[in-house]
UniProtKB/TrEMBL annotation:
Domain Clp R: 2-190
GO MF term (any one): peptidase activity
Name used for this protein in its record: Clp protease N-terminal domain-containing protein
Cited PROSITE patterns: CLP_R (PS51903)
Gene3D superfamilies cross-referenced by the UniProt entry: Clp, N-terminal domain (1.10.1780.10)
Regions crossing the membrane: none
UniProt keyword Acetylation present: no
UniProtKB keywords: Hydrolase, Protease, Repeat
The keyword Transport is annotated on this UniProt entry: no
Biological processes, Gene Ontology terms: proteolysis
Amino acid sequence: MFERFSKSARDVVEGAVGHAERVVSETVAEEHLLLSLLEREGTKAAFVLNALGVTERRELLERALGEARRRGGISRVDAEALAGLGIDVTEIVARVEDAHGRGALATGRRPRHWWSAGHRPFTREAKAVLERSLRAALARGDRHIGDEHILLALAAGPGVVADVLAEYGASQAEVERVLGGDGKAQPLAG
């Protein structure tokens, strides 16, 4: 499948690995793909993220991803749903952190071991994003997978990254609207 990736999509994947390395994560996760997309310039995905105002709110988006990671991968939306059932996720996280230290529930950040040096596997969820990007490209009639297809797959997928993207205005529907029906990025109607 990787042979179908355009240069921009390959750059996103390589950038995601770089993000995982910088935060000393043993695996490359969906959030690393998103953070890599946010660094792109001059690509279709960069245009979409700029048009939707996501790029300018990157710091807030990163904070939301960090809080979800700290909650053990539970999104804000999920935490609110649990609160409706009388379950206070914030209190649970506080108790666990009191007992085991800050970030005890954080996902994807463990000390590196000698046997993992040099190789970071992709999480099941990140692999699913790459598979969905292929389906997005095929559905749009494209022969290659571009970074816009990775963005579509992130926005369409279940999980924290899709929830955070939607919270910041980049839901699947909005990404598709800005890309347009032919897969070409379209400016927002003023």
